[in-house]
Amino acid sequence: MSRNVSFALVVIALMAIVIAGIMFGPNMWTQFRYGDEASVSQEQALAKDFDLPVSELFARAQDYLAKGDPDSALAVLEESARRGHAPSARAVGEMYDPTLWGETPSPFTRPNPQEALRWYEKAIELGDSEAANKANIVRTMLAAGQ
Known about the structure:
This protein is mainly α. The chain has helices at about 5-25, 30-35, 35-50, 55-65, 70-80, 85-95, 115-125, 130-145.
């Protein structure tokens, strides 16, 4: 490629970035990530949720599930689990668990026993004894090749 063509491509790319910045404003990167203005407001609402104490985060996730919003519930549960809330880690595992598929609301299109087991093990590390039973069931299923 000639030097002039390369320069022209760089100029076009910079112009596209400037135009996108004008069109989307300060939420440009969030809109690119989530796709639309409604998702931007959802992201901003979740950011406010993340300021809540862990005990309230779990309740907020349950509210999202009751409203049919498992994507937001997952984000809140993952944050709560990251902060050490064992029931939240177990709840994320349940979203992946093939033995609970269809019973537990989930944002995923299919179960994932390996991820379920990973989250159950995190819940166990955080002190959740109920997760141990669920982890054993998933381990047995994985060992049987299911």
